[in-house]
Amino acid sequence: MKRKYRRWLITALVLNILAILGYGAHYYKNKLPAEIRLITGEETEFSFLLPFSAKIEGDSVGVLEVNREPLEKGSITIDLSDTITMRAAEKTSATMELRLFGIFPLKKVEISAVTPQSVIVGGTAIGIHVETNGVLVLGTTSVTGADKMTYEPAENRLKSGDYIIKADGTKVSKKEDLIQVLKESDGSEIHFVVRRGKENISVAVTPVRTADGSYKIGTWIRDDTQGIGTLTYITQDGKYGALGHGITDVDTGVLLEVGSGNAYDAEIIRIVKGQPGTPGELSGVIHRSEEERIGTVTKNTAQGIFGEVKKECAAAQNGITMDIGLKQDVKKGKASIMCEINGSVGNYEIEIEQVDYSNRNHAKGLVIKITDEELIELTGGIVQGMSGSPIIQDGKLIGAVTHVFIRDSTKGYGTFIENMLEN
């Protein structure tokens, strides 16, 4: 019995040690970012304060300095519990590998050097109108035929999140294209080309003739969407980023694939204040005219929408130019956001409460809290339509507002500006 008890204790001890090591490794691993960017010619200091060593490897001889020692061809080992300095003389790349006990690989961090960059800071409210790349299927439904029987022609053929891109060889880019193909089918089977995820597949559906003589396949579809958000930045070569998160379909949650679109000036006409459990909203009018068009929408990604501005865009001509701040420049403490609430762009105080350098969720690298009494009085905190509001700290653009906490509208998430600039 004593031997069994001793074995049980030893087993429990070993399992506990392994669990602690595993949790510790996971915790420390997430303290390191997935990538480190350096500004060429500038020395950057890092204080990871991790009880591990790491190996840095690179191919560019003498370009990267670590702790003021040139990284020669090969590698250099550093102690992550100490303050580390890095400097790159020019654009280069390297890899830092964190190992447990110097043996077990935990994480690889990509190191790259980029040229200094400044952008025109946004903060203005914009109206966004985009058309999908194909027709988005929201779901399927039943159809009552001319014979008063119920049919479900698209069930198990078309799925929520599918994009119909061709029907009987005809390109489908809007609802009217699909309606015309159905009209001309005369009830014959239609062969669709559907984009499902990253694949194009073929699907055959036979339309049902209804009592009014029209043909239907029993699908809910969407080919465009619009809304209000905030412009984050404009680059020196006329590219812009906004929202800080992607446009998703309200019914399916799918990130919309943009075929074409435009951003316009928007006028905020009503503010719905945020309440615990209910996010607020900026309601406005989108001025969809060529004179009020800011630029195109060419990309919709998890980090926001992107496109090119018109040469005569007022925001590009009259905006404030500011240096960008990389992840390592961001710290807990006072900061501000820029957004348009009362007809002009205002600067409002916030507090950065958490910084997740690991970048596991690109849209939620920062936790921020609105501390500006005027903004809280106006909106209750963060509301829908403020997504994309630039976050400023120490005179640099370091991020953008992305989400609001449902239970506390004074708090929300932000993304690092470098995540947006990657797009």
Name some characteristics of this structure.
single chain; 423 residues; mainly beta; six-stranded antiparallel beta barrel; 5 helices; 48% strand
Question: What is the secondary structure topology, with strand pairs?
Answer:
Blueprint (H helix, E strand, L loop, with lengths): L1 H28 L5 E5 L3 E4 L6 E6 L5 E3 L2 E2 L3 E6 L4 E5 L4 E8 L3 E11 L3 E4 L3 E16 L2 E2 L5 E2 L11 E5 L2 E2 L3 H11 L4 E7 L2 E7 L2 E2 L5 E2 L2 E16 L4 E4 L15 E15 L7 E7 L6 E4 L2 E3 L2 E5 L5 H5 L1 E4 L9 E8 L4 E11 L10 E5 L2 H7 L3 E2 L5 E4 L2 E9 L6 E6 H5 L2
Task: Give me the secondary-structure category.
Answer: mainly beta
Q: How would a textbook summarize the main sheet?
A: 15 strands, mixed
- Spatial extent as radius of gyration: 27 Å
Total count of helical runs of at least 4 residues: 5
For the secondary structure, the number of strands is 34
Taken from the alpha-carbon principal axes, the silhouette is globular
Report the portion of residues in β strands.
over 45%
The residue ranges in which pLDDT falls below 50 over 5 or more consecutive positions are none
What is the first-to-last residue Cα distance? 65 Å
The overall pLDDT, averaged over residues, is: 88
- Which bin fits the share of residues in helices? 10-25%
